[in-house]
Amino acid sequence: MTTTAAPLDVAALRADFPILSRTVRDGKRLVYLDSGATSQRPTQVLDAEKAFLQEHNAAVHRGAHQLAEEATDAYEGARQRIADFVGADFGELVFTKNATEGFNLVAYAMGNAATSGPEAARFVVGPGDEIVVTEMEHHANLVPWQQLASRTGATLKWFKLTADGRLDLSDVDSVITPRTKVVAFTHQSNVTGVINPVSVLVAAARKVGALTVLDACQSVPHSPVDFHELGVDFASFSGHKMLGPSGIGVLYGRRELLETLPPFITGGSMIELVKMEGSTFAPPPQRFEAGSPMTSQAVGLGAAVDYLSVVGMERINAHEHALTVAALEGLSGIKGVRLIGPQDAVDRGGAVPFEIEGVHPHDAGQVLDSLGIAVRVGHHCAWPLHRCLNAQSSVRATFYLYNTLDEVDALVDGVREAQKFFGVA
Amino acid sequence: MQLQQMYQEIILDHYKNPHGRGLRDPFDAESFQVNPTCGDEVTLRVHVVDDVVKDVSYDSQGCSISQASTSVLTDLVVGKPVGEAFKKMDAFVELMQSRGQIEPDEDVLEDGIAFAGVSKYPARVKCALLGWMAFKDAVARSQGAA
């Protein structure tokens, strides 16, 4: 990839996203600062989905007719392009319905290991074993591990946060021990944008033979990510946060692991041989894709990674960094605004959570909405993180390639407006 | 402006000066309710004597809408027979689920009519009902215990 530092031509990019030119709430210009929840789709993605449905639609991996062949090629072709995009091999990507299903797939498959063959022994978790997570996790990479622990009798442990919302890694060896079977952690916090040192955690996990499971939902859409380079064992991310469709997620698993991991959801398409007495299973990734899979969604996600590749992940990342710096500066200049988490943009993606003294986040979000500004309010599926940082909930602005400095200014002005409305300015 | 329609002065007044706030004794039952999307929470106690709501006391954390509606709730139900209190609750729930299509009855809902504008915002209806769900649950518990 040529990493020219040429800034993005945001105006030209925005023309690819029809929704960004609509108005909301009585003619207000839409300022969409909620891409961390879901991103918008460019016409290139929408067109790819439509073209697939109009020209090639058929069930994949079954049927010998021409459409079935074309549909299968489109589906598997998308898998290849997505694999290239995240530094993985073709057979290492499993399509799921969303990222949450990816985490559950690994957790449930590990739960199934105890009753599977000897090849699955390394996945068995039981009493005396430990599962490690962090206080920073989205519920999607926390609750499945709590559940696995309670089903198997394993112990759940976690890394705590520092006062400014980063992972407290001062005592890695007391958290990750020879008893640790899994270390599940996020690459980039969905609330604070904090980017975690993957290499430190991967090294600590490897030292004790533990598996690593990475939440890549907020990193893959916003920065160059190479799973082989990161050295994680599993990773999960979603299509709808990276300009792609909803209804599709991707689970990455190192080839040798997927080859011995027991299945989670079983049924059609994932089998090798079925007899009344029992069945054997297909090799990965098919073993983990039971039933009729999503098709136009896979094609759409393939188009999304094509789009992102053409724009360039380095440039997208630099652009979002500039927006984040501007937002931190603008918001920290307002009396009564408390930035939650790190106060700076070091090792941080494009997410800025904050509180306004005297204005509940829900009410702040309502004022911003009345101005056409879409942000997320609440705990953003990261309740423990909010507790750690002494916030009941927060307002969160998140940025993507199509956002502008003007929109950051609109946010800052909107926060002042909220203070005025509630009489706390 | 739409915002003023939603945040009526009455709502902002109740938010800034909530009625009946604080947890008190005696009480017969307590309910804890939480809105899982935003983390807003309320702990609410009821004291019922001879089928009359003698006191409603509460401790809560939440947005202006949830705080104000709990404050209005205490005005509406304290001193009323349980049956009448539940009728007011039904009227309030119906109003909140109306998407702005119902003309509320001030004789029944008093300050509660100010929430008509909130009903146009589906994302905020849960906020307005949080305290009421706690009230309903607490009364049911008090009756179960009796």
Automatic annotation (TrEMBL), chain A:
Top-level taxonomic group: Bacteria
UniProt cross-references to InterPro entries, sorted A to Z: Aminotrans_V_dom (IPR000192), Aminotrans_V_PyrdxlP_BS (IPR020578), Cys_dSase_SufS (IPR010970), PyrdxlP-dep_Trfase (IPR015424), PyrdxlP-dep_Trfase_major (IPR015421), PyrdxlP-dep_Trfase_small (IPR015422)
Matches recorded under CDD domains: SufS_like
Cofactor(s) the protein needs: pyridoxal 5'-phosphate
NCBIfam families reported in the protein's UniProt record: sufS
Record-stated family: Belongs to the class-V pyridoxal-phosphate-dependent aminotransferase family. Csd subfamily.
Enzyme class: transferase
UniProt keyword terms in alphabetical order: Lyase, Pyridoxal phosphate, Transferase
Pfam entry (one): Aminotran_5
Annotated catalysed reactions: (sulfur carrier)-H + L-cysteine = (sulfur carrier)-SH + L-alanine
Role this protein plays: Catalyzes the removal of elemental sulfur and selenium atoms from L-cysteine, L-cystine, L-selenocysteine, and L-selenocystine to produce L-alanine.
Domain Aminotransferase class V positions: 31-411
Protein name: Cysteine desulfurase
From TrEMBL, chain B:
Gene3D superfamilies (UniProt xref): 3.90.1010.10
GO terms of molecular function: iron ion binding; iron-sulfur cluster binding
Residues annotated as domain NIF system FeS cluster assembly NifU N-terminal: 6-127
Gene Ontology biological process terms in this record: iron-sulfur cluster assembly
Matching InterPro entries: NIF_FeS_clus_asmbl_NifU_N
NCBIfam families linked to this entry: SUF_scaf_2
Protein name: Nitrogen fixation protein NifU
Lineage, broadest ranks: Bacteria, Bacillati, Actinomycetota, Actinomycetes, Pseudonocardiales
